[in-house]
């Protein structure tokens, strides 16, 4: 399917459903840059400590935070991992196809409301930086750049630190970032992701396929590591092998969730057999619940934590 036809299909199906179900509240999925100072108020539990006004805090001997008016215009960046492992898919769609459709939907949702989007594309390295712009034509350009890329050959392990470091260098203004990846990578990327999250609103969009979690009993299978090209014939009739495979998958899943938690980012999980609308709505509901919980906690537990209280 060409890019124009793909975008038209998504506009008529996914976007129309999202518009109705979100009821125009697309900002649930992201926050603005918030650069205009509007007011000062006393610190409350769960406030962002980066917004503390230390001059006022020292003068009044009570923590105060700066409140900002949200920019009417949002800037969002898609940091897209298109390395060899995202070409895997056991169902109708590959992880690459799911990534492309997610980017199309979110980019169009934003640009239809006057906002701007940009992208960094990573294969074996960051080879495309598309600056933020608005409009449908810009979204089509982004999707065409993703579609024109050939499948990556096995060139060794993916290193997401390169993608995240490139984002640190190129994205100067506080923005909303979507890191779209299966997070099959050399270790250490969570530190770079955490650094991005200190400045930007970051969401990890984790792509996966159900077959990566649990192998069916289908006899002899030739398995190939998409990242390294290494091949191995395995017997899925072997119950012990399937149990070891599942245990390893559970261990990887636990390590990944812990790494994302350490980085301090929200996570949207997209499986190759998921309904894209349902996944986005679940994520929006989760963000609403967290926002309500933070507001409730702040109202009930208003005192500042010890590490931000001024010295006596």
Structure write-up:
Helix 1 packs parallel to helix 8 and helix 5 packs parallel to helix 6. The strands form three sheets. A six-stranded mixed β-sheet has the order 5-4-3-6-7-10, sandwiched between helices. Strands 1-2 form a two-stranded antiparallel ribbon. It is built from eight helices and ten strands. The termini are far apart. It is globular and about 70 Å long. Strand 8 and strand 9 form a beta hairpin. With 312 residues, the chain is of the alpha/beta class. The C terminus is likely disordered.
Oligomer: single chain
The main pleated sheet reads as: 6 strands, mixed
Count up the helices.
Answer: 8
Shape: globular
Evaluate the radius of gyration.
22 Å
Helix and strand composition category: alpha/beta
Helix content: 40-55%
Number of strands: 10
> Roughly how many Å apart are the termini?
66 Å
How much β-strand is present in the residues? 15-25%
Question: Order of strands across the biggest sheet?
Answer: 5-4-3-6-7-10
Runs in which pLDDT lies below 50 for 5 or more consecutive residues are 32-36, 294-312
Q: Could you report the average pLDDT, rounded to the nearest whole number?
A: 81
The ordered string of helix (H) and strand (E) elements is HEHEEHEEHHEHEEEHEH
């Amino acid at each position: 399917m060409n890019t124009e036809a793909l975008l038209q299909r998504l506009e008529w199906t996914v976007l129309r459903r999202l518009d109705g179900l979100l009821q125009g509240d697309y900002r649930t999925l992201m926050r603005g840059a918030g650069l205009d100072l509007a007011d000062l108020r006393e610190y409350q539990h769960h406030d962002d400590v980066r917004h503390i006004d230390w001059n006022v805090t020292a003068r009044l001997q009570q923590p105060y935070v700066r409140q900002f008016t949200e920019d009417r215009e949002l800037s969002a960046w898609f940091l897209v991992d298109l390395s060899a492992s995202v070409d895997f898919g056991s169902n109708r769609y590959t992880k690459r196809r799911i990534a492309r459709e997610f980017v199309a939907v979110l980019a169009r949702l934003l640009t239809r409301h006057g906002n701007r989007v940009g992208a960094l594309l990573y294969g074996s390295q960051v080879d495309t930086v598309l600056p933020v712009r608005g409009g449908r034509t810009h979204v089509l350009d982004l999707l065409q750049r993703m579609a024109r890329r050939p499948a990556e050959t096995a060139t060794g392990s993916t290193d997401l630190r390169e993608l995240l470091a490139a984002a640190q260098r190129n994205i100067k203004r506080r923005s909303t970032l979507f890191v779209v990846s299966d997070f099959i990578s050399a270790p250490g990327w969570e530190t770079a992701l955490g650094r991005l999250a200190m400045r930007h609103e970051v969401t990890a969009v984790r792509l996966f396929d159900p077959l990566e979690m649990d192998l069916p009993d289908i006899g002899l299978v030739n398995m190939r590591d998409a990242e390294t090209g290494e091949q191995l014939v395995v017997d899925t009739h072997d119950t012990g092998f399937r149990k070891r495979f599942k245990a390893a998958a559970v261990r990887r899943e636990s390590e990944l969730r812990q790494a994302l938690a350490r980085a301090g980012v929200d996570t949207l999980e997209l499986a190759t057999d998921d309904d894209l609308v349902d996944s986005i709505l679940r994520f929006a509901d989760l963000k609403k619940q967290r926002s309500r919980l933070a507001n409730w906690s702040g109202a009930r537990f208003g005192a500042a934590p010890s590490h931000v209280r001024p010295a006596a």
